[in-house]
Amino acid sequence: MKLSKITVVATLALILTGCSTNQSKPSKSYQNESKAELNSKAPSKTLKTTNHFTSLTKQIDSKFNHMLLPQLSGMPTNQIVNAKATGTAKHVKIAYSLDKNNLPLNSPKLSNKIYATLTKTTYGTSTAAKQAISFQPASSISGLPKINLGHSITGRTQSGAGQEYISWNEGRWSVSVHGSRVNNNNPKGTAVAAVNMFEKYSLPVPETVGTVALFAGDSTNLSQTITFQKGNQVYTLKANTVGTAIKMAASMK
Fold this sequence. Notes:
The protein has 253 residues and is of the alpha+beta class. Helix content is 22%, strand content 28%.
């Protein structure tokens, strides 16, 4: 898995007013704003939302005595993201929500538009943490039919009762994509998209194992899940979309 200003100067044309030195000042209405002025507003909003997410991340890190956290929201850079973080230093749950305004951490005004969650669970030992992850070794699927997913990745397919699965392993990660024939959700498109993203975004290296469980055709139920072990801790990131889940997980540090 690999990771991978515009300055515009606008001048008013004097020929439109006969080069008069007594021309009136241009209106400050929205319609008469220069393109440079309008374009300068987008970067400003982007910077504001990015800084807000960074600030929330630092507050959460301090509140819970340091933990791995996404440095990217996984959303468009102009999208406002807020957060609610609860728990203790050993057991933490963070809910990321979409809002119209930047709000303080754990604000009671947070919207219910949660698009991703992150949990950290601490176990007594690293062995117990590893056992809590449903890792699927390559040997368990080696005899199943093959499917080419690109980038030299070969998946294995299995189906039954109207359900389809494509699974493969990369490094310490096992990946599975669940599709449904009943709902016409073919898992191959999601599997290929995931493989393409893994070429651009590097997931964290698990202590021993990690799993990626994706659901084709589902973009609203936090059903895209990435789980991995770090010592005696297990991190589980859930998101509405595959792209968001992978981008957030890859930025965790």
